[in-house]
Design a protein that fits this description.
Elements (H helix, E strand, L loop, with lengths): L11 H4 L40 E4 L10 H6 L7 E4 L2 E4 L2 E3 L7 E4 L7 E5 L15 H4 L3 E3 L5 E3 L2 E4 L17 E3 L4 E4 L2 E3 L5 E3 L9 E5 L2 E4 L1 E6 L2 E5 L2 E4 L11 E6 L9 E4 L2 E4 L6 E4 L13 E5 L2 E2 L22 E5 L19 H4 L4 H5 L9
């Protein structure tokens, strides 16, 4: 995304301080978490000697599985319906799931998402090793999922590239995960980064991919949840980070949807919360992204029954990414939000749904015949 001028406990930086070396700067522990130490690496999910199914592969960075990297496991699959069980540990690699590997499930075998971490440190401005240019926003993703029917449980997806370590780099977007497939579900996962952390997108402008995020945690600073998917975020926690490179507000924006104009449903945030480690009112709730690839986009975001902390600028929670596409002409709305960041001081800046207008703003209406919450 265009770069603007621009941690709860266990945030990316704090969590990644547990081990030595470069990964320590972000708190990514290289060894299994103490809660899983001494147990079978794959817990209740079997082992290479006792597979859940013939289509289950086991990944362990310490060599106790079928392979030691997630990408090697993906490469070993063909067709549809594979399950990857990931032992606790840190997987420092980039991973890509192409469109042919449909209905794939990744299961973190730890006690929670902190135990299984997939992380790398490419940014949009990082030079490619072959000298062919830089990665760009999409190419910076640590994990890319283009296949339909993908499910992940109890996994952390992270990008630990830091602006402070690369003061000469202008392309500071650094994606933790880009998801473009239809029926993509994430349960109890974490998404850690700074700019452009979670890229919830589609495989094509004319495809309205559906995605579901339940009981997840995402943190960042600039547009850190963005893209054109039809995405439902339910019972999720969004955390805005502080910044030392800026002296004044705004530090950034939580959401930057780029919904296609023909798509009747964009991002829906429901029964969630937004907190901040930055000063009060230093963050905007959202701004619309109308990309150069689709000037007919009409970004859509509905935030309902969600707690907005003091980090959100209640007086002016929305801003423009480009003055040619003012946020007032897009599809932004709120309904029954609470918290200091939800206080309506200037009604013109806080578009509110009526009860009747809010009726179709539900997970069922957004996701149609797909019911991913039934397995949460």
């Amino acid at each position: 995304m265009p770069s603007p001028h621009l941690r709860p406990p266990f945030s990316r930086r704090g969590f990644l301080l547990a081990s030595a070396g470069a990964s320590a700067a972000l708190g990514l522990a290289a060894a299994p978490a103490p809660a899983t130490a001494g147990r079978r690496p794959f817990g209740r999910y079997g082992s290479p000697a006792a597979r859940l199914t013939p289509s289950t592969l086991y990944v362990d960075p310490h060599g106790r599985g079928d392979v030691t990297t997630v990408q090697a496991a993906v490469n070993a699959t063909t067709g549809s319906g594979w399950t990857l069980v990931l032992a606790p540990g840190t997987y420092r690699e980039t991973v890509s799931v192409d469109p042919t590997r449909t209905e794939m499930t990744w299961l973190g075998a730890g006690d929670g998402p902190r135990d299984v971490v997939i992380v790398y440190d490419n940014a949009a401005g990082t030079p490619k090793p072959d000298g062919s240019g830089t990665y760009g926003t999409t190419g910076s993703a640590t994990t890319t999922v283009r296949a339909d029917g993908f499910t992940a449980r109890r996994i952390t997806f992270a990008n630990d590239w830091l602006r402070a370590d690369h003061p000469g780099t202008s392309g500071t977007q650094a994606v933790a995960i880009k998801v473009t497939g239809d029926r993509s579900a994430f349960h109890h996962c974490r998404f850690l980064g700074h700019q452009d952390t979670l890229y919830a997108d589609t495989n094509a402008l004319t495809v309205f991919a559906r995605q579901y995020f339940a009981h997840c945690y995402a943190e960042g600073d600039v547009d850190f949840v963005f893209g054109r998917a039809t995405a439902v975020f339910e019972h999720c926690h969004f955390r805005t980070l502080t910044r030392t490179d800026l002296a004044s507000a705004p530090y950034g924006f939580v959401f930057a949807p780029s919904t296609a104009g023909a798509n009747p449903r964009g991002y829906l945030v429901t029964r969630s919360r937004i907190t901040s480690e930055a000063p009060d009112a230093f963050y905007k709730l959202a701004r619309p992204w109308v990309p150069s690839s689709d000037r007919t986009a009409r970004p859509m975001l509905t935030v309902r029954e969600t707690w907005l902390g003091p980090g959100i600028d209640a007086a002016a929670p929305y801003a423009n990414m480009s003055d040619a596409y003012p946020w007032q002409e897009q599809r932004f709305a709120e309904y029954r939000n609470t918290g200091p960041g939800a206080e309506i001081t200037l009604p013109a800046n806080r578009p509110q749904l009526t009860p009747e207008e809010a009726e179709p703003a539900t997970r069922a209406a957004y996701l149609g015949d797909w019911r991913p919450w039934s397995t949460d």
